Amino acid sequence: MELLNYVGGQYLSPSSGEWIDVLAPVDGSVLARVPDSGADDVDRAVVAARTAFETTDWRHRTPAARADVLRAMADELERRVPELSGTLIRDVGCPARLSRRFVLLLDPPSNAPSALSAVTFSMARWASTSSIPRAPCWATPTTARR
User: Which CATH number does the domain housing residue 101 bear?
Assistant: First the structure.
């Protein structure tokens, strides 16, 4: 599986053309390849985020309207817990009995990338931002991507 940068509504390869293999902790096999993104990729993401902020209605929505969007995102995450827990098991070798609780964990990113994504969404709502530039955790990129 080759994961791409998601910038401005498009999936893009890293400008460097370089990739990083993500290895399964259980057997060392390659789970995925992720972009080895650099400053050019970050600059592209910042421009896209600024453009989204300036050209969409998000910044003009009421806090209640923003909360509705974020609640819908949380509902979607909850609906996908079985799928995400399976991905988490592969990413970090997490025992199945613990993987279904990852949304509630606030451990380091390598243990709970999805929980940190939820926290990021909450902080974004609090800060009234219109876009959330986010890079998946280096240790669990396939979970964060889903």
Answer: 3.40.605.10
What's the domain range around 48? 5-145
CA 113 – CA 140 distance, rounded (Å): 7
CB 143 within 8 A of CB 4: no
**Number of compact structural domains in the chain:** 1
pTM above 0.70, yes or no: no
Cβ–Cβ under 8 Å, residues 40 and 69: no
Ordered mean pLDDT values, 10 residues apiece, the chain (146 residues) = 91 95 88 93 93 90 90 85 78 69 42 51 45 53 62
Q: Which of 11, 31, 10, 35 has its CA nearest to residue 22?
A: 31
Q: What pLDDT sits at residue 93?
A: 76
Phi-psi region of 144 (alpha: psi -120 to 50; beta: other; left: phi over 0): alpha
Q: Which three-class secondary structure state does DSSP give residue 30?
A: strand
In the chain, the N- to C-terminal Cα span, in Å, equals: 12
Q: How far apart are CA 143 and CA 83, in angstroms?
A: 9
